[in-house]
Design a protein that fits this description.
15 strands; globular; eleven-stranded antiparallel β-sheet; alpha+beta
Length: 298
Amino acid sequence: MDFLTTQPPHRSCRIPRAFFIALLLWATTPVLAQEPRWESLAPGLAAAIWQPDDRCLDSDRWLVVKIDPALHRFSVHYFAQEGLPHPPMIDEWQKRTGHEILFNAGLFRENYAYLGLLLKDGKSLGSRRHNTWQGLFVAEPRLPLSAPKAGVLDLASDIFHEETPDYLEAAQSLMLLDRKGALRVRQTGKRAYQTLVAENKDGHILILKSLGLVTLHGIGQCLRETFPSIALAMAMDGGSSSDLFVSESLWKRGDPSAAQANWKDLFAGRSTAHIPLPAVIGLSPRGSVTDAAPSSKP
């Protein structure tokens, strides 16, 4: 007897079509973004230590502060305009200005002259618009009822007249990520600490400070793939000039969470070395002393 002919007839195993559809959807669905887990510091103010996922091979941890500009005011400071003989370090800036949060404003020359457009109270601080840099952080509109309190402009498409500016505070630097999700920097392979300013799609402002050496192109790709709430991003000065200071009075209010246990060295300015900064941008709650209306504001 032929053994093979005694076996039960072969029955094909038909996998339901719905299974293949579900498998295809699973394979093509992008991995969910892992944005920061925010810790509240004050109304309209939150912070996080952000660790991008494996899609960001070029990036380490980041300090991130999220600001609601409706509740907090941005102010530009430049050492020469304030009558200082030399630029202070960021902790000295904090003591001088009283701002709860400070970050470096942009790029400058060896003689501390600011590179790009820099405005305070609607007036230029002596610098001129850079011809190729297209990122412009703006704050405090002259007509506050008709414009956001702060935001990032793309000078390749947004109009800004420095002679009659619509905003009182402004600082120009490199455009990193535009509204279309396009990267606006080349891949050079150069690695450095970086400070980024971004505008969220909900109108919040994000300040990001890298805790490791990164490339601008790499972090631009990282933001595009893992931080979809960002609408635009620009890069301020990098290297040893990259700086972010959060006053200890903010993150020590109330009972500190487990996430805040290691914030002291990171947010209090002890995570990296510091150099004098000719220009900084400070942040204060609206209604405070530093929020007094300038004479040029209608």
